[in-house]
Structure formats: structure tokens, C-alpha cells
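Q: Convert this sequence to C-alpha cells.
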Amino acid sequence: MSFWKNRRVVVSGGSGFLGSFVVENLRSAGCREITVPRSHEYDLREMSEALRLFKDARPDVFIHLAAVVGGIGANRDNPGRFFYDNAIMGLNVIEAARVVGIEKFVCAGTVCSYPKFTPVPFREENVWNGYPEETNGPYVLAKKMLVVQLQAYRQQYGMNGIYLTPVNLYGPRDNFDLETSHVIPALIRKCWEAKQAHAAEVLAWGTGSATREFLYVEDAAEAIVLAAEKYAKFDLVNLGSGEEISIRDLLEQIRSLVGFEGKLRWDATKPDGQPRRGLDTSRALAEFGWRGKTSLHDGLRKTIQWFESNVKVAMRA
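A:
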């Protein structure tokens, strides 16, 4: 509580899915001055706008969560936009933080940074051992450049910047738009709509053989705030739950929790994405005492309950 009490914090992307929980966590930790910049107020793709944000908010800590993101389909359709917008936003806010001499900069990356074929569990030292899965390569490389920037700025300027790598997130307030959402909200919506329509089947992308690890959003928010307070080293840090599951088994769980009784059909002409994802999260535990608390089953149950209670909001978002 005492660490955050008198610190001013900016959370870019603070009105988004993860960011909204980070803001809530900061408030619970005693932070009184939190600025959540909106894109119509500060276009962080412009250096002058990034500097104006720092001048206006005067943050002690900057938590950079703002990103242009989506699932496999969105990445394939928007490689140029996803590369440019994510790279330029990150470059600008990190440089602006250096110019003003910020106390702490926290950057959230992506598990997609790991090479397409990485031994499981993914360890932080493996992140540069190959090219990422092709469907999201441009987005990933834009985000990985921020690791390089933060490490270079620490080396040359002594800037205290850290980089966190969360695995796939899910939970209440997620994006349930089938065109841009990630796998869990997409499958929840598909099963729910199929149940409402008394459909005979649900169609899912790929073969279902790929595996993923998922982290409940409230656990991720807790980790980010804890790392912002306690972690101050050069090396990036994985954030995950420790549970790896195939997409096929994931869909079975979601179908059961939603109550859809029809068939599941897989479209093998669609990509599976990266074959496996599962993180080694021992560094987060050792460095700032964090580990995920919410089991996948409990997290899915909470997410589905939120979706069913907020269908109009979820479908409109």
C-alpha cells in the first residue's frame, strides 16, 4: 500500500480488457493518481503526443498495455497495421519516458514472441531462438523490438524498464467479436449462439491438436502490478498459469460449461497456429513472488457467467 500511495501512474490501454483490471488492482493497492489515456486524446503513434501525455500526467510509473491485437484471422488480414501501430506506439512511449526521466517503465509483451517450435515449457532465454509462428509474425516482431529498446536504454541511460510476457489471457470483459477475438471468447460465443439457435454443430478452426496455456485476466493484472513494484532487472519474465491444454479439450470444457449438446466439427483447412504453448513461470515466482491462482476450469466458469450476464455488452463490444 505504501509503495503506490504517492505515485502517479499512467496505464496506456487502461480502458481495455487487461488494462481495466490493472487499474482496479492499482486502486486496491492504494494508488490514488491513475491516468488512463484514450486514443482520441493522445495518439501515441505521434511522438509529440506521447511527450504531451508525459507532460500532462507527470507519471512516476508508466504501464504500457496499449496494443492493436486480434486472433489468427485478424493477424493475417492486418499484418502491416499490426506491425506499424504496435511498434511506433511502443517506441514513442519508451523514448518519451527516457526523455522525462521516469522512475519505472513496465511493458507487457506477448507469448507469441517465442519461436514457432520452442521446447515446452518455454523459458525466457529461448525467446530469440527462431522466427515466431508466421500468422502473427509482424505483430510479434513489433512487440519484440520493445524488449531490445528497453534493454538498450537500460544499458546506455540506466532507464528502469521491465518487460513481461503473459501467456494467452481470458476472462470477464474480453473481446467476443468473432472477427477479432482470441480462442476462448470466440469458442464461448460460438457455443452459446449454437445453444440459443438449437444448432446441430459448432465449427472450429484447425484440427484441435494445438495446445495452449491460458492465464485468467485478474491473475495477470496482479502480476503486472506486483512486478511494477518489485522487479527491476534486465531479463524479461513469463507470466502463466502452468496448465497446458489442447484446443480440442478446451472446446469440450467450454461446450460442457455453456450447456451446448450438439456436435463439434473441425475445419482442418484453417491454421492451428503455433503447435504448442506452455510457459516456465519459475522466474516470476523467484523474483517477485507471483504465481497464477485461478484454475482454467474456474476461470472459464467465471468468464461464461459474465458473458451470459452481459450478452448485449459483450456482443456489441
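The first strand starts at residue 8 and ends at 12.
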